[in-house]
Amino acid sequence: MLTKRLGLPHIQGAGSFITALFIDALGSGLFWPFSLLYFHVIANLPLSVIGLVLAIATLISLPMTPVTGILVDRVGTQRIIVASQLLEVVGFLGYLFVRTVPVLLITALLVAIGIRMFWVAFPTLIAEISPEGERDRWYGFISAAQNAGLGMGGLLAGVLIALGGNLGYQVLVAVNALSFLVSAALLSRLRGIDRRGTQQRQITETVGYRAILQDRPFLGIVVCNTAFILCISTATSALPVYLIEALHMPAWIVGIAFT
Taken in order 242, 116, 256, 184, is the CA torsion positive or negative? Predict the structure, then answer.
């Protein structure tokens, strides 16, 4: 088959799942390039304060990583994914009302917890959806779809900022919140996910954290991946500020740079 030659998975019956993740990524691509600049422009907060508050929110949310792993085993991957996106809906809607540091911290913490929960449960959801023998293709395909969504979101963000100015920033946040709501609605309609996940977890239920901590190659990958994500996050957060504050480029160029 052509899809097999192209390295694509069999996606028949997974339209809602793929659409949900693409919409999620599209909304994230809208806001991500302007995540620091939004609070600087709309709330008139200093960039140093914004960076510190967002870092604190991220640190506070870190314990949700192992907690979410436990919750996935207890209540199912699908429910955790939907809950994480609803948390982000509330957090991003709260961003529209941020004018002070305490409100920024509370809303940023909701978003950070939602993000932490999503990215813990998300790989498991793909594993539960993908047929046996196609898991690597599914991971590759979903990553490509998400990257396409992020790129398109960045491009649209540049257009919105160019046309709407300060109002454009608020539109980015509102549309991002809407994208999470739509994605959560689509993912909540998936059927049979928790049942398949329960069957898979029963097979591997004897594997605990001790086995993971004794797997040195895996721990090495975790350390390298953590360093990589830290570098990527730092660069992508600093680039928009550098383009506008240091190089004095128009705000819409940020969206283009992330496409």
Answer: negative
Q: Please give the Cα distance from 231 to 59 (Å, whole number).
A: 16
Measured CA to CA, the distance from residue 164 to residue 42 in angstroms comes to: 13
Amino acid at 231: C
Instruction: Read off the amino acid at residue 20.
Output: A
Rounded to an integer, what distance in angstroms lies between the CA atom of residue 57 and that of residue 50? 11
Residue 192: what pLDDT? 64
CA-to-CA distance for 45 and 121, rounded, in angstroms?
33
The domain containing residue 209 runs over which residues?
15-257
Contacts for 152 with CB less than 8 Å, ≥ 6 apart: 26, 29, 259
d(CA 128, CA 197) in angstroms, rounded, equals 6
Q: Which residue has the higher pLDDT, 172 or 208?
A: 172
Task: Report yes or no on whether pTM surpasses 0.90.
Answer: no
Supply the CATH number for residue 196's domain: 1.20.1250.20
Q: What DSSP assignment string belongs to 135-163?
A: HHHHHHHHHHHHHHHHHHHHHHHHHHHHH
Q: Could you tell me where the beta strands, DSSP code E, fall in 11-157?
A: none
Q: pLDDT tens-digit profile of 205-227? A: 556 667 777 788 888 888 888 88
The count of structural domains within the chain is: 1
Q: What is the mean pLDDT of residues 56-68?
A: 93
